[in-house]
Amino acid sequence: MHLTTTQLSALDALSELRHFTKAAQRLGITQSALSQQVKALEQSVGLPLINRDTRPLTMTSMGEKLLIRARLILQQASAIEAECRQTEDLKQGKLSLGIIPTIAPYLTRLVLPHFITAYPGIQLDIHEDTTSNLAKKVHQGHVDLAITSDLESLPTSTVAHLDEHPLFKEKLYLATPLDPHIPSQELPMIGLKEGHCLRDQAIEVCNQSIDHNISCDQISTLISLVKAGLGSAVIPSMAVPNSLEPAMEISEIPNAQRLIQVVTRPQVHPNPAAKAFVDTLNTQLPQQVKA
User: Fold this and answer.
1) Cα–Cα distance between 54 and 283 in angstroms, integer?
2) How many CB atoms lie within 10 A of CB 240?
3) Which pairs from 278-283 meet CB under 8 Å and 24+ separation?
4) Tens of pLDDT along 101-141?
5) How confident is the model at residue 190 (pLDDT cuts 50, 70, 90)?
6) How many C-beta atoms lie closer than 10 Å to residue 253's C-beta?
7) How far apart are CA 157 and CA 140, in angstroms?
8) Is a pLDDT exceeding 70 seen at residue 269?
9) To the nearest whole percent, how much of the chain has pLDDT over 90?
10) How far apart are CA 248 and CA 226, in angstroms?
11) Tell me: the pLDDT tens digits for 37-62?
């Protein structure tokens, strides 16, 4: 049995108006097309649904029973269409957003207020994770998009199924304690735990291994460890304190930077909220961040 909403709409109009011509006019189709829809519905059901020899038309007992369910189906279909229109218009919907922890606290405060103000009906679900894990989540469809750093270390099989949209290149700085507990000549390089792209980037730009005795997950904790005099660390420009830190010295590492990008999964019908968020990123990120 194959029923369509077009057929059910034809039955509904006939049941209300009891006249083929009037029902066809309401639906904006010819009387012949209406008759074909009803006949196709009757063939699917295997029983007559309309008493055609009465004036006005009347429904058969099967027609009356089917009509009750038909109207419920049409109501649900109408609700789905309305919801889809609202989602397309960004009046409601959901956006699953991934972002690496090293920029999440800084980038979100620059962009999210603008996005939420513009699209108050969009529900945001934020995932903080490493670039590797976020790339997998995007590929598997668990998140709509992710803000990550370089993808060079990821398997080609994963990257090949992703679309990359560069946002900006971020400078990297070296944070050093001014009063270290360890002699400066023996000061270790501390960093985030393995899996964080900033850890690999720190090793590359400083050509120095990371102390395995001290590691953490959050950039704010890493800075606190530097302030405590436990070691030096590579931090991104967005994490550099705005005011002078008496317990820490910040110096730019020459020619050291990392790419920040949006990663999405190629889709025929992408989430409209995801596109709106990328547009917000491009328009609301300050020039000093993009530089």
Assistant:
1) 66
2) 17
3) 278/145, 278/165, 280/111, 280/114, 280/115, 280/118, 281/111, 281/147, 281/167, 282/167
4) 999 988 888 899 999 998 888 889 999 999 889 998 898 88
5) very high
6) 14
7) 13
8) no
9) 27
10) 7
11) 989 988 988 899 889 888 888 889 99
pLDDT for 134 = 92
**Distances in Å between the alpha carbon of 192 and those of 129, 131, 147, 239, 249?**
12, 13, 18, 14, 19
List phi, psi (to 5°) of 219: -65, -35
Please tell me the predicted confidence (pLDDT) of residue 256. Answer: 92
How far, in Å, CA of 230 to CA of 2, rounded? Answer: 71
Beta bridge partners of 169: 259
Residue 97: the pLDDT is 93
User: What gap in Å lies between CA 3 and CA 154, rounded to an integer?
Assistant: 48
Distance CA 197, CA 103 (A): 12
Give the bridge partners for 232, in sequence order: 189
What DSSP string runs through the chain? Answer: ----HHHHHHHHHHHHH--HHHHHHHHTS-HHHHHHHHHHHHHHHTS--EETTSSS-EE-HHHHHHHHHHHHHHHHHHHHHHHHHHHHTTSSEEEEEEE-TTTHHHHHHHHHHHHHHH-TTEEEEEEE--HHHHHHHHHTTSSSEEEE---TTS-HHHHTT-EEEEEEEEEEEEEEESS-SS-GGGPPB-EEPTT-HHHHHHHHHHT-PPPTTSEES-HHHHHHHHHTTS-BEEEEGGGS-SS--TTEEEEEEEEEEEEEEEEE---SS--HHHHHHHHHHHHHS-HHHH-
CA dist., res. 222 & res. 191, Å (int): 7
Distance CA 91, CA 114 (A): 15
Rounded to an integer, the average pLDDT of 249-256 is 91
